[in-house]
């Protein structure tokens, strides 16, 4: 894995690909002795908050190009299912039509069974946003818990109408 700094641009290359990041103006990034150092010019509030953000974004890029990121989704509900169509995925979620989702650049979908999806890629933000957009198609509802949810997500259930 290599990190190169060109002014305010930080480029991280690894076995899974490469990512670029533009650092906010007052901060400086240096690579010394195998470490990436982020320094701020003063202790102003904005500089301190940008310092932590920049450090975390660079760390996320390093983890992304070496290990990658994955996010799991589950489809819950009678008749709800998902299947792979090439690189795309097709959902049957109780609508009158199937919903086809195309992966953005750098994102891959894998489907296990007919109700589990894994979104993977090297950019943490893109993986999370893609998973959130898929979940947005049919959020889990509070009465029966049907819909698309994150793996391990606990859906708060409500009591239905009380019968006489």
From TrEMBL:
Keyword Iron-sulfur carried by entry: no
Q: Where is the Large ribosomal subunit protein uL6 alpha-beta domain?
A: 2-68, 76-150
**What cellular component terms from Gene Ontology apply here?**
cytosolic large ribosomal subunit
Q: Name one Pfam family in it.
A: Ribosomal_L6
The record, for SUPFAM superfamilies, names:
Ribosomal protein L6
A GO biological process held by the record: cytoplasmic translation
Q: Which PROSITE patterns is this protein grouped with?
A: RIBOSOMAL_L6_1
Is Electron transport one of the keywords? no
Output one GO MF annotation.
Answer: structural constituent of ribosome
**Keywords recorded for this protein, A-Z:** Ribonucleoprotein, Ribosomal protein, RNA-binding, rRNA-binding
* Role noted for this protein: This protein binds to the 23S rRNA, and is important in its secondary structure. It is located near the subunit interface in the base of the L7/L12 stalk, and near the tRNA binding site of the peptidyltransferase center.
Question: Could you say which protein family the record assigns here?
Answer: Belongs to the universal ribosomal protein uL6 family.
**Name of this chain's protein:** 50S ribosomal protein L6
């Amino acid at each position: 894995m290599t990190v190169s700094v060109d002014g305010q641009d930080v480029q991280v290359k690894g076995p899974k690909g490469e990512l670029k990041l533009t650092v906010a103006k007052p901060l400086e990034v240096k690579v010394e002795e195998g470490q990436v150092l982020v320094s701020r010019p003063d202790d102003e509030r904005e500089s301190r908050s940008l310092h932590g953000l920049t450090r975390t974004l660079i760390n996320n890029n390093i983890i992304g190009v070496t290990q990658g990121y994955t996010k799991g989704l589950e489809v819950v509900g009678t008749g709800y299912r998902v299947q792979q169509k090439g690189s795309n995925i097709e959902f049957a979620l109780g609508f009158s039509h199937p919903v086809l989702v195309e992966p953005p650049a750098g994102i891959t979908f894998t489907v296990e069974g007919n109700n589990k999806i894994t979104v993977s890629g090297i950019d943490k933000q893109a993986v999370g946003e893609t998973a959130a957009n898929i979940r947005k198609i049919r959020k889990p509802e509070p009465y029966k818990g049907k819909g698309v949810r994150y793996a391990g997500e606990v859906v708060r259930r409500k009591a239905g109408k009380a019968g006489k």
